[in-house]
Amino acid sequence: MSIKCCKDCVPPQRYPGCHGHCQKYLEEKRLYEIQKQKERAAKSPRLTNYDFDEIAYSACKRHKRRQRE
User: Fold this and answer.
1) Which of 14, 35, 43, 48 could form a disulfide with 9 if both were Cys (CB 3.0 to 4.6 A apart)?
2) Nearest-CA neighbor of 25 among 48, 2, 45, 41?
3) Neighbouring residues of 2: CB distance < 8 A, sequence distance ≥ 6
4) Contact 35, 1 (CB under 8 A)
5) How close are the terminal C-alpha atoms of the chain, in Å?
6) Cα Rg of the chain (Å, integer)
7) SS3 helix, strand, coil % of the chain, rounded to 5?
8) What is the distance between the alpha carbons of residues 28 and 6, in angstroms, rounded to a whole number?
9) Is the pLDDT higher at 61 or at 25?
């Protein structure tokens, strides 16, 4: 779902800064934000390559042995 109410708006209905006052836009934006929150909550957290690199780096540091003199 995307915000479509302003796609075909033309002056005088649409003007610079109208998104702060347009009731149609504010309602669609509110519904869009609610939908985004539901989608984010439904997704499981994703691990990236960076996460695996951090895990591997910390594991290497933990298992590094000290050299005796």
Assistant:
1) 14
2) 2
3) 32
4) yes
5) 66
6) 25
7) 55, 0, 45
8) 10
9) 25
Pair of tokens at residue 7: 């796609």
One-letter amino acid at 42 equals: A
What number of other Cβ atoms are within 10 A of residue 5's Cβ?
Answer: 15
- When pLDDT is averaged across residues 33-39 and rounded to a whole number, the result is 91
Reported as a single tens digit per residue, the pLDDT across 10-34 is 777 777 777 778 888 889 999 999 9
What six digits make up the tokens of 35?
């939908």
Residue 35: CB partners within 8 Å, gap ≥ 6? 1
DSSP of 8-69, one letter per residue? Answer: T--TTT--TTGGGT-HHHHHHHHHHHHHHHHHHHHSPP---HHHHHHHHHHHHHHTPPPPP-
Tokens of 12: 């005088």
